[in-house]
Amino acid sequence: MLLGLSSDAADTEADLHAVVGEADAGVAHANLLSAFAEAAWRRDHTLPSARVALREAVGDAAVVEAAQTVAIFRSLNIAADTSGIPLDEGWRGFAGDFVADLGLDRFRSAANTPGY
Amino acid sequence: MTDLRPNPFVVEVADSVWAELGRPGAQWTGAERIAMAEVVRQSAPRPLWDRAPALADLSREGDGHVLSPYLRGLVERVTVEPSSLSADEVVAIVAEIGDAAYAELASVVAQVVAVDHQAAALGLALRDLPPAEPGQPHRRRPEGMADVGGHIPMTEVSDGPNVRRSLSLAGADHDRWMMLVFAMYSGHQFNEMVWADRALTRPQVELLAARTSALNECFY
Fold first, then answer.
1. pLDDT tens per residue, chain B (220 residues)?
2. Which of A60, B38, B59, B178 is the most exposed place for a label (fewest CB within 10 A)?
3. B180 contacts in A (CB within 8 Å)?
4. Which contiguous run of DSSP H or E holds residue B79?
5. Which of residues 56-85 of A touch B (CB under 8 A)?
């Protein structure tokens, strides 16, 4: 949701299908950012090349921010899923609009998320 | 190894997290908390043909490790497959170890994952784990916890997204974890949709966040 809202604020239109790896998000360097997020998540042999490619495109400070973002979101996901926090009131209406479209309701945690 | 350097403020907060990691917490000893961190580091997503055993099948008896097979299995599950934890499973876990101990365990995992995963993503060596310090957990339970519809109690009043209170039952560990969230993501600008003074734009950060959450199958 915040991808959509922040893109609107920047007068760009994000393709939310990028969230599930099905499109270019429409933000700068989206493909490199997604490739880095995926490689960092897998922590496999693709990570060094994904990091180098992103570094060449956006610079050191941005790679550092990308690394801390993927790290803290892995951590945030742990907190959300282990605690079973309910969806936030303000997000429920937004979620209904794109959950089915993106297939997010196939996630096991959908059934474990109160409020959905 | 690379020559990339983490943000100094993130390093400062991670230092404070590490300083407390090996000390007794509210529910677990220092040795148990460091043992949890070690299991986090040994945990990786398993291939489809190598599923983790069900928690119910794991021994609660000691086997020479600090943590029982059951607790090691729980830490692995929280680390690599948190999205698979159902409300019924959490009820069973809480019946065995208590809700505050479960919250602290998850909070320790969340802190170690944040610090370690950043280092790995940057191609840096992981920090040495601190030594376990002697002493017993203080057993104090945070005040103001309530059932707000989640798997475990959390602060009744929330001043932001629900994830901000998710593991509040873990008390000081939750507070330290939230400092990591502040340093690594939200800062003072969470409610601003345009970030002008960061290396990445807000949509770029949210793309990384959303893609990571989708890979983790985190619906929230």
1. 889 999 999 999 999 999 999 999 999 999 999 999 999 999 987 777 787 889 999 999 999 999 999 999 999 999 999 988 999 999 999 999 999 999 999 999 999 999 999 999 999 999 999 999 999 999 999 999 999 999 999 999 888 888 899 999 999 999 999 999 999 998 878 777 767 789 999 999 999 999 999 998 887 6
2. B59
3. 72, 75
4. helix B69-80
5. 58-85
Preferred mutation among A15, A29, A44, A75 to probe B, highest tally of B CBs within 10 A: A75
Please give the radius of gyration of chain B, using alpha carbons only, rounded to the nearest integer: 18
Whether B175 and B205 map to the same domain: the answer is: no
Judge contact between A19 and B206, C-beta under 8 A. Answer: no
Same domain, B121 and B199: no
B102 and B206 fall within a common domain: no
Q: What is the tally of structural domains in chain B?
A: 2
Judge whether B183 lies within some domain. Answer: yes
Which residues in chain B touch residue A10, judged by CB atoms under 8 angstroms apart? 193-194, 201-203
Considering the domain architecture, whether residues B117 and B147 belong to the same structural domain is answered as yes
Please give the ipTM for the structure prediction.
0.95
Please tell me the distance in Å from A7's CA to the nearest CA on chain B: 5
Diameter of chain A measured on Cα atoms: 42
Are both B123 and B203 inside the same structural domain? no
Question: Is residue B16 classed as helix, strand or coil in its secondary structure?
Answer: helix
CA distance A35 to A46: 9
